[in-house]
Amino acid sequence: MSFSLKRTRAIFVKDYKEFSRNYAVSIMLIFPIIFALLFRGAGQLLPGAVGFVFNASFVILTCFAQACLIAEEKERNTLRSLMMTPATTMDVLIGKSSLVFVMSAVVLAISTYILGYEPASIWAFVAATILSIILYTAVGTICGLYSKTLLDASLSIIPVAIVFTGGPYGGMLLADDFPIFKVLEYTSTIQLVRLLDIRNAGFTMGDLLKPLLIILSWTVVLTIISVALYQRRLKDE
Amino acid sequence: MQFQPVYYDGELFLPKIELNMTSNQSIGIITDLKRKQLLMNQLVNHSEYYLFRAGQSEYMRLTVEELITFLIKVTERNERVASLMDYFALKEERKVKIKDLSSSKRMYVTLLRVFFAHQPTLVLEEPYFYLEEEDRRHFKRILDDVSREKQVLILTSNLEDAMISCDTIYRLNELGFHPLDIRDSEEDKQEVQEQDQANITLQKISTKRNDKVILFDPPEVDYIESIEGSILVHVGGENYVCALTLTELEQRLLNFGFFRCHRSYIVNLQKVREIITWTKNSYSLRLNTGKNTVVPLSRAKLQELKALLNI
User: Fold this and answer.
1) Considering the entire predicted model, what is its pTM?
2) Is A87 within 8 Å of B70 when comparing Cβ atoms?
3) SS3 assignment, position A124
């Protein structure tokens, strides 16, 4: 599969202009910042507050934006037309994903600054955030592929929120009574919370590496699934 | 280009079609919605055919200039935006967002995707349907330039649309796939010459509607057309069925300023306002009947009409 920087950049610029002028979708950019402002005071006292802000932002910003970008193209039949140009699947996916990536990274950096969060290891923190953004972009791609219109895409966020945020958090609360829910400890969501909760004093390399590796494996699996699904769905069109 | 036969409830719905396409030629197929879909579904090869379907929409929030820039970049062409905007005659709409354009202009801009296609064959579904006359003319010009290097196939349900830019026209319906003869037949002319004398005693045209016989004075009639064997007399936007043939009507109406402008049309010259030139070879007549009525004018009849009108 060939990949051209010129075409990818054209798609990036086009999507940036479309996205920034679609206020109904681009308003999602300010939600993580509002969350950060709300949790600002509680951040130091409440364990997991930073993790919650991050996990929620991934769903309502990263996943939502990616799903909307793809669903809108499908709704207007422009994706089909794009597939008849020299632009390849990779060009389209990377162009869109990089826009979502840049937006998420900038907004989350601002949120972190507002929260006043200081990670134990800045490298582990940055790596986990980057991996999670890629992970949720892949989930957003899958949502976009299974929705026909913009409205479908915005609704498809609800199951994602349940599976990736509600499920693990709820499961952890019940884990003491029902040991079966201990499995949810290994979701990327909880691992991110664990990683972000590591404080400055006394941590080992193993403490950092374990959550990172689990998140990495989730990211790799979901990215492969989303690219495979994307190519299969486009053949049906 | 080849199409496989399609059966529907045990009956042949789409016959096997083989089209010999050469470049610098455009083919039109007049057919219905269902058959259009079936034809297009067979053209799945993205490296051979560029398919423009009627449902195509556009990136609404981009301006026209941004869209053209995007299309140039994504198809890796070397043209400059400014010169293409001139070529597309979109200079004035440069900074307008697609969603703010008039619906005809929006369709025109959407159709420009065809210009950027790299495939050797372009297939367009109903390209002229939503276009106003000015945009039609621009798009026709662009399509003519494109068809110099590529093969163009137009699928439409409208004869007039197909006549705008197709060299060869076929009709595809339950009777099969047949070429449409748009030349004027020789027999008609000979019959006309046999009876030079106009029949002045017959001044009324009798038509039928809902079992009533309605008589019209010839000057009332806008034009008469023949659709699939039945003769329709158009008067003030309404149409009435007439039992006479076009050749008979032509002889009766000769002295009232009527003119056989096409194999299946007779027009009242008193009501013609404009001769529209689509290209060197395709023309239409616009009538001043209030409603925007356009009647096709065949190329062979143009000289005759010009002589008649002393122009």
Assistant:
1) 0.72
2) no
3) helix
Number of residues written out for chain B: 311
Residue A192 C-alpha, separation from nearest chain B C-alpha, in angstroms: 37
Could you list the residue range(s) of the whole structural domain that residue A69 is in?
5-236
Q: So where are chain B's domains?
A: 2-179, 186-309
Buried/exposed B113-128: b ≥16 CB within 10 Å, e otherwise: bbbbbebebbbbbbbb
Q: Which residue of B has its CA nearest to A12?
A: B70
- Which tens digits make up the pLDDT trace of A58-103? 998 999 999 999 999 888 889 888 888 888 888 889 999 999 999 9
Instruction: Please write the tens of the pLDDT for every residue from B9-63.
Output: 777 888 888 887 776 778 899 998 888 988 888 888 888 888 898 888 899 999 9
Stretch (H or E) spanning A197: helix A188-197
DSSP for A31-51, written as a single string: HHHHHHHHHTTGGGTSTTHHH
CATH class for the region spanning B186-309: mainly beta
Enter the CATH code of domain B2-179: 3.40.50.300
Q: Which site among A9, A84, A88, A231 would you substitute to test the B interface, given the most B Cβ atoms closer than 10 Å to its Cβ?
A: A84
Structure ipTM: 0.84
pLDDT of B108 over the 90 cut: yes
B73 closest CB neighbour out of A7, A82, A84: A7
Residue type present at position B194: E
Cβ-Cβ contacts under 8 Å, A74 against chain B? none
Confidence of residue B202 (pLDDT cuts 50, 70, 90): low
Q: Where are the beta strands (DSSP E) in chain A?
A: none
CA distance A12 to A8: 6
Token duo for residue B126: 């109903």
User: CB of B75 within 8 Å of any CB in chain A?
Assistant: yes
* Number of domains within chain A: 1
Q: Compute the distance between CA of residue A145 and CA of residue A71 in angstroms, rounded to an integer.
A: 7
Q: Name residues whose C-beta falls within 8 Å of residue B43's C-beta, 6 or more positions apart in sequence.
A: B49, B51, B123
Contact between A86 and B62 using a beta-carbon 8 Å cutoff? no
Q: Do the domains B186-309 and B2-179 match in fold?
A: no
Q: What is the mean pLDDT of chain B?
A: 83
